[in-house]
Amino acid sequence: MFGTIWDDNSCAYDAVITILYNLWLNNPIYWSSAFTNIGSHIILFLDVNFHEVLNNSLTLDSVRDGFRELLCLSYRLHFRFGQFTSVDQILLYTLASHYNVLSSSTSCPHLHVVNGPEAPIKNCYVSIAGVAGNNIPLISILNNCTTECVNECGACGYQLIRTYKLITAPPILFVDTSMYAVDITTQVIVNVGGQNHMYKLHSIIYFGNYHFTCVVIDSANKMWFHDGMKGKNMYYICNLSENLNLRVFNNQVAVAITLVHIN
Ligand SMILES: [Zn+2]
Q1: pTM of the entire predicted model
Q2: Are 23 and 38 in contact (CB under 8 A)?
Q3: Which residue of 142, 158, 178, 218 is most buried, as measured by CB atoms within 10 A?
């Protein structure tokens, strides 16, 4: 278990690449295929380069730098090399998928007919704005998550409700937890099209004091902490258990979590 060393405001990239590399390393054949199916050119770049790290032809630090450069070159308005970046944007572009993940549809609270098609979201990063509250169960973000729309119903004038629903069960899901206090559980079962799918918590990205760190859970349920400013090594914290408060760690708050589909 290892990550990258912080360099030139790289912390958001360090957290994402540390998580994705340690995940990929669990089963390179399986994850190589899963990354290929997701299909963004960013995740394809990571897959190819992770093989080089495994063969000792590249260091993970140099892959991190290439990952940064690729994002900067591809999306100039969102990424500037050397500047502080949010994990939110990195995840959004890295996890853009070729398949539909979520459906998003609007409805009237008084059941008036609302025009407009359902819009599928092609991304394995689930980030839903407008959810409010404390201790929100993780399942309610993934199953029929509702938010109020800006738009109003043409018939009654009430604000429309937008409902998000998982329509596929991808091998990996990142969930944005920065906008609401979600109750982070070690596993969650989601119903997709009438079938239950189990997801296990794999990692958590923390943010505080303008710095990102992460925690990765290994296959033996041991929790490992990574902070690029302290070097590339990961430090054992404790074993994962249900009664841990995973939302806050070292005075930092969980801004995104990674869930892995258990077959
Ligand atoms: Zn209405």
Answers
A1: 0.94
A2: no
A3: 142
